[in-house]
Amino acid sequence: MPNQTQRERLIELLESSSVLKASAIVNHGIDRKTVQRMVQTGEIQRIGRGLYSLSDYEVDSYHSYVEAQLLVETGVICLLSALSFHAIGTQTPRYVWLAVSRPSRIPKIEGLPVKIVTFSEPAFSAGIEEHQIEGATVKVYSPAKTVADCFKFRNKLGTDVAIEALREAVREKNVSPDELLRFADICRVRSVLVPYLEGVMQ
Q: Are 42 and 79 found together in one domain?
């Protein structure tokens, strides 16, 4: 609409996208003073560092995943956070675990507890799923890829975490052995994972 005000435009954008970064708002021709004024009047709310939504917007239990994805657009939710998302195991992560491609520069994130790990190719690009959370597209590794990653990072997470994830992925999520082995090969952990997989399959 040619006569649409910045306020009307921002409301329309947030009705469509649910959550927007401040930079995206500015890119749509809406100045920061308009944003600040609408926050003060209660029309919109600031729900994270540089993130805005309509005031009646309900935050999802995985809202921190949306924040992390918007702040690191190339990142992928991984390891303990991916396990939690897929309801695998008993881990309750204190951080949002986020993978970035090596040799990318590791971004500095303030105000959000994020643990960033680096994956080399092809492990970084394999097994990525896209899920809609709060109207935003969030990239999360699949259950099978996440299990392989847990074995890859077993020294950081603990072998018990990887074994629990493997057991539940097979028994509760119907993840196939072939799928697990495919990602184990990609992550170069087949020799480590196979003995535990054989134990689970008995």
A: no
Q: How much is the pLDDT for 1?
A: 45
- The alpha carbon torsion through 167, 171, 175, 179 (nearest 10 deg) reads 50
Residue 3's pLDDT band, with cuts at 50, 70 and 90, is: low
Q: What totals of helices (H) and strands (E) does the chain contain, helices first?
A: 10, 8
Query: Do 95 and 159 fall within a single domain?
Result: yes
C-alpha span between 163 and 183 (Å, rounded)? 15
Alpha carbon distance 31, 29 (integer Å): 6
Which regions of the chain does DSSP assign to beta strands (E)? 20-21, 44-48, 51-54, 76-77, 96-101, 114-119, 128-133, 136-141
Structure tokens at 56: 């009646």
pLDDT, tens only, 42-98? 888 887 667 787 887 666 568 889 888 988 989 999 999 999 999 999 888 888 999
Question: Which CATH number covers residue 41?
Answer: 1.10.10
For the whole prediction, is pTM greater than 0.85? no
User: Are residues 37 and 116 both part of a single domain?
Assistant: no
Give the tokens for residue 72: 């690191």
Window from 62-66, 95-99, 118-122, 146-150 with minimum mean pLDDT: 62-66
- Helix/strand/coil for 184: helix
Same domain, 10 and 103: no
Query: Are 70 and 117 contained in the same domain?
Result: yes
> Do 75 and 48 share a structural domain?
no
